[in-house]
């Protein structure tokens, strides 16, 4: 195996001298880059315009990326599917959009772009009482005739063809524990249904992908996209931070998950060599290096908090938008500012919230939500005048928002401003007559 990079000693030393992020953070030096919210940096090789369309594919983390980009105002083609009755019956709970391994992604994109290679009815496994399963589409039970399922399947593949029209393709690698159908010569997206395993136990194999398996799958996918696209390929690749739920290997799931993520992360570095318009962005590092108290939603150590996804995509946009590569590495979008403040508040890092807002003053002053978060943090450390200033700005830029005005009224008590409280209450009566419950609670006034 060849090295992925070779430099002379002189070249290596010269490059080290110009890399400001060369040393690992320590508590007394760049510690804020690591804890509580990790901020790994990336070096874009291309730009993404706000008007660019995006297609995301891969594991469940790709759905988080789609949501964040959609809320940031970008067009996400991988969300613009119309799948008819069968697709609507699956709903989001079926996770049929998720592709958990590189081969699952490669299968679907191959079938979408080269339809003659689609196996057709052979990919349907019979279940009980006339139901069917498609192991490429999660574990959802399909309670429809095969002809209707296949018609839906072709609509789904038609939707996936948008991958050649999108300006930016985002690929998220999930797992390397896979299942293989020997009869079809096909890697499956999920474990085949138990009915199929019981009927033909020798047909299916559990396989753990190697470094070479992952790399070859990536190379095949890249070649496939380049073969069918007419516009230049701009591609972001990453590893999903979402860990294995359980393992089929004879080892601790913590150890199995470490292999699953690290082998894919390693393969991506070699995959990037010599590929113009293909970059790695560190969503995996953003999540796994951040404080677990804010990294995970539901406190389950598996589902990434939406605020952290917003922070990650804020980093991507600020770095990849025109001129972003030369921007301050700490620059954020409005979504990233709010999400970072929410996570810092959850950690009770109120001084850090105020420092974040001050460092992004113009951005904060244009967002009522950011200003309310600033006011809340200031109130927690008894910086009452700072809280008052932030709430005043929030009511000015979004006068239709009652919570900012109500917080100002409440703040008048510790500030000893009963006259202002009465004036604000009169304004509250006029602007929000339906919120009498709040007014009844202000008994001190």
Automatic annotation (TrEMBL):
Pfam annotation, one family: GSCFA
Gene3D superfamilies documented for this protein: Tetratricopeptide repeat domain
Record-annotated GSCFA domain positions: 54-314
Name of protein: GSCFA family protein
